Structure formats: C-alpha cells, structure tokens
Amino acid sequence: MVLVVVGISVAAVGRILEPAAVNGEAVTLVAALGLLLNIAVAWLLMHGEQTMNTRGALLHVLGDLLGSVAALVSGAVVMWTGWTTIDPLLSMLICALMLVSSLRLLREVLQALMEGVPPSLSSEQIGRVLAGIAGVASVHDLHIWILSSRRVALSAHLIVESLEQWPTVLAASRHTLAAQGITHVTLQPEPLTYPVRWLPAPEKGRRQGSP
Q1: What is the pTM for the complete model shown?
Q2: What is the topology classification, in CATH, of domain 123-191?
Q3: Per residue in 155-179, pLDDT tens?
Q4: Distance between CA atoms of 174 and 63, rounded to whole angstroms?
C-alpha cells in the first residue's frame, strides 16, 4: 500500500505539472461501478475475522473505495467546470489518508515480527497485577509478546509463599491475565526462600552478647 501511495502521488504530481484532458462522463460512470463493488467487498471484510491480513486487505479496498469517491467528485467537477486539476489534487488527498493508515498497520506488523510488547499493555503494570495475587510473593523474568492479531503470549516466574498453593495461584493468575486479553500463558512457580542472615563476629576484648 505504501508503494501504491507513492506511485499514485508521483502520477498526480505529473498530472498537475502537465495537465491532461479528462473525460468526465467516463470517469463518473467507472467510479460509480467501482464504488458499488468496493462497498460490497468492504462489507464482507468488515464482518469477517479481524486479523492483520484481513485488515491489510480491507485497507486496500478502502483505498479503492475512497479513490472511487474522489473519481466521482472529480468527474462531476470536470463535467460542470472543466477544471481537470481537481483529479490529481483529490488523488494526493486520498494518498495522504491511506499513507497514515498503511504506516500504522506496518508498525503493528513489524512489532509482531519483532515479538514486541503490545502497545495496549505494560509489562510493569502486568507484573504488579500478578504480584498482587494472593499467595504470590514476587514476579521476575516477565516477558510479553505478540503471537498474532488476537493472541498475546506471556511467560513469567512467580515466587509463591507455598508450593501447595500453586494450583489456586495458577488459576487466579490465568483468570487475571485473561481479563487483560492474555490467553497464551506459561508460568513457572518458585518456592519462597529467605536468605541466611549472618551475625557479625564479636570484637576482640568484648564478650559475645555484651552491650
């Protein structure tokens, strides 16, 4: 879509620098037929499964749909006024709108390929939520990444107060994460251990336990 936008923009600039004759009647007729077809295809895509692939296809169809609307407007303007520059100007406007949507989708796709954290989630916030579950002492090695349009994966180590509580903690953790839209979960329990505290050695000339 970015390449299509660049190609149309280059052609539009060329038409502005060197105006060409435009058949307003033909443009209007073809644009009307294209508009009806693109509306039907867009309706099908919008009511299907919403994945990155279908969103990319829908973006392409919406670009054609907006192009048909622009062609209808430009055809009518050419028929009524003879101002042919309206065609490339509307083409550049549609290109600007499609470029924003295309770059947004491209950024999301690249984030999924790089296994980045979804923009709608925060690792720190998810970590605090997990650490607040009853029986969880702390959380470490927390990782969140995108598997697909609707699947977010998470892995973490949970330090639990008692391994006997793990089934309850696991169920509560999965339920809490599901509420955040995270369903592909791998959690590893670790027992809570207290570090050994060493008492300082007594000073010379002073008995151990003396003030």
Answers
A1: 0.55
A2: Alpha-Beta Plaits (3.30.70)
A3: 999 999 888 889 999 999 999 999 8
A4: 41
